Amino acid sequence: MPGVLLLKAHRSEGADMSAEGDCIFCQIAKGDIPAAKLFENERLVAFSDIQPVAPFHILVVPREHIATINDLRRKDQSLLGEMVLLAQKLAGEAGLAESGYRLVLNCNADAGQVVFHLHLHVIGGKPLGGLVS
Ligand code: AMP
Ligand code: ZN
């Protein structure tokens, strides 16, 4: 029976399109794929979104491969706090503190998540309209 369990575990991993080896944001974090980085430290990287929806559109990304919000655990509380504070800092440096900006975390298909490595969108530089559009 242990063999069956191992096989299942292996299949599950193999079918996961967001596995770390294939993950574009893991590769950007490692420097294997270029990106317009604004910031990096031991836990986070931030870079410009390749298809910006506003004059300012960056992504704040943990170096650790966490596929979706559903995969967050209690141990990740401080990481999320760091992500929001980095978003605040970079939006502020871009001059958006007063005019405002939006932070977006998409989870899975209905939210339109297409990259399955947790990322915080930081969007601003123009009026963004209503939350649901
Ligand atoms: P989401 O829909 O929340 O999964 O958003 C994924 C975001 O990643 C989109 O806004 C894409 O434009 C962006 N993106 C995808 N590939 C890259 C890349 N190589 N460099 C920068 N941004 C990217
Ligand atoms: Zn990843």
CATH uppermost class: Alpha Beta
Q: SS-based structural class?
A: alpha+beta
Percentage beta strand:
15-25%
Shape: globular
CATH superfamily: HIT-like
CA radius of gyration: 17 Å
Are there runs of 5+ residues with pLDDT below 50, and where?
1-17
Let me know the average pLDDT: 88
**Ligand set:** adenosine monophosphate, zinc ion
CATH topology name, in short, is HIT family, subunit A
What profile does the largest beta sheet have? Answer: 5 strands, antiparallel
Total strands: 5
Topology at a glance:
Elements: H1 2-15, H2 24-30, E1 37-40, E2 44-48, E3 56-62, H3 77-93, E4 101-104, H4 108-111, E5 120-124
Antiparallel strand pairs: 1-2, 2-3, 3-5, 4-5
The chain binds adenosine monophosphate and zinc ion.
Account of the 3D structure:
- Helix content is 32%, strand content 19%.
- With 133 residues, the protein is α+β, with helices and mostly antiparallel strands.
- It has one domain (2-124): HIT family, subunit A, CATH 3.30.428.
- Strands 1-2-3-5-4 form a five-stranded antiparallel beta sheet, with helices on one face.
- The longest helix has 17 residues, at 77-93.
- The structure holds adenosine monophosphate and zinc ion.
- Adenosine monophosphate binds at residues 24, 35, 47, 49-51, 59, 106, 112-115.
What is the compact description of this entry?
The protein has about 130 residues and is an alpha+beta fold. The N terminus is likely disordered.
What attributes characterize this protein structure?
single chain; 133 residues; alpha+beta; HIT family, subunit A; five-stranded antiparallel β-sheet; 4 helices; 32% helix; 19% strand; globular; disordered N terminus; binds adenosine monophosphate; binds zinc ion
